[in-house]
Design a protein that fits this description.
single chain, alpha+beta, Phosphorylase Kinase, domain 1, Transferase(Phosphotransferase), domain 1, 2 domains, 6-stranded antiparallel beta sheet, two-stranded antiparallel sheet, 10 strands
Length: 327
């Protein structure tokens, strides 16, 4: 099972970090349930007109199963015990504006209720990046390709005023067996510009400084920070910013790598005085000690701007010279 979408302090609504990918552990014909969705089933049972063929994964608020239709076409069905319909609304909006699925976002097929459960029928994809890099080392050409695809997908979402809010390797999934096409999944925490913005989003390791500090506003630029963390992880095979459930320590680590937190951010935080004094941390490995490619290093520093007003956006990322290089 993949890492949980958020830590215990989060109020995110994402049900699974691998909503349409394969899972390394599948259950047999016995019953199964997740911490937030006690759905008992057996392989071969029906959900509406679909037959359950495999367990895929579970998350905080639900589980994902593989099902097939009457033509034996496989799908992923996300089963939730409750929903605020935000995820479905976002998926429908994306489907309306990208009917052929060219934006690199998991295809949405249907939403229905079944025995008091909310079911979201999605495209069945392949393995997610988190699971893949456990046994495969990506080369710089593969990283460049994935980086470009994910940024293009994010740019489409951001153009619609949608922030993904939970960008991480578990939510980037290969869409083919050749492992050269990826798609974004899990819109459970996606937030539209005109909606309430939760004070805590993202899985902690990928959380931007303005989100950690509960600043007055966060926006699509928080996805850029998460994307930068993700790219470093693909490059090294390890989580970049390793931190426990401690905001002050998290900020202290970020500050030791990227410099001081601007004073205006401390003033706009909902916990102003809390962040005035940060704990001392052990010496952290700097980004230039990790990333050898100088163009990629330059791009990542632009994405890791602590001040989100100065953080580079998706269009600027794609225009960076790193993407004009041939590997």
């Amino acid at each position: 099972m993949a890492r949980s979408t958020t830590d215990s302090s989060s109020s995110g609504s994402s049900s699974s970090s691998s909503s349409s990918s394969s899972s390394s552990s599948s259950s047999s014909s016995g019953s199964s349930s997740s911490s937030g969705c006690h759905f008992n089933y057996e392989i071969g049972d029906k959900i509406d007109k679909y037959v359950i063929t495999k367990y895929l994964c579970s998350g905080t608020f639900g589980m994902v199963l593989e099902v097939t239709d009457q033509q034996e076409i496989p799908y992923a069905v996300k089963i939730l015990s409750e929903t605020d319909h935000t995820e479905v609304d976002v998926l429908r909006k994306i489907q309306l504006l990208d009917p052929f699925g060219e934006a690199g976002i998991v295809k949405f097929y249907d939403y229905f209720t079944w025995q008091d459960y909310h079911c979201i029928l999605l495209e069945r994809l392949d393995i997610n990046l988190h699971d893949y890099i456990q046994s495969h080392t990506l080369n710089i050409k593969e990283i460049q390709s994935i980086f470009k695809q994910v940024t293009t997908s994010l740019m489409f979402m951001h153009s619609l005023g949608i922030t993904h809010t939970d960008l991480k390797p578990e939510n980037i999934v290969f869409a083919n067996q050749q492992k050269n096409l990826v798609k974004l999944i899990d819109m459970g925490g996606a937030t539209q510009a005109n909606e309430h913005h939760s004070t805590v989003i993202n899985t902690r390791q990928y959380r931007a400084p303005e989100v950690i500090m509960r600043c007055d506003t966060w926006d699509t630029s928080s996805d850029i920070w998460s994307l930068a963390c993700l790219i470093v992880e693909l490059y090294t095979g390890r989580v970049f910013i390793k931190v426990g459930n401690n905001d002050l320590m998290h900020l202290a680590i970020i500050q030791s790598i990227f410099g001081p937190i601007p004073s205006y951010m401390k003033q706009s935080s909902k916990f102003k005085s809390r962040f005035n004094s940060l704990p001392k941390v052990q010496s952290q490995k700097q980004l230039h000690q990790i990333i050898e490619d100088q163009d990629l290093l330059d791009l990542l520093y632009l994405m890791f701007s602590i001040d989100h007003h100065h953080r580079i956006n998706c269009k600027q990322i794609l225009e960076h010279k790193f993407f004009s290089k041939l590997f």
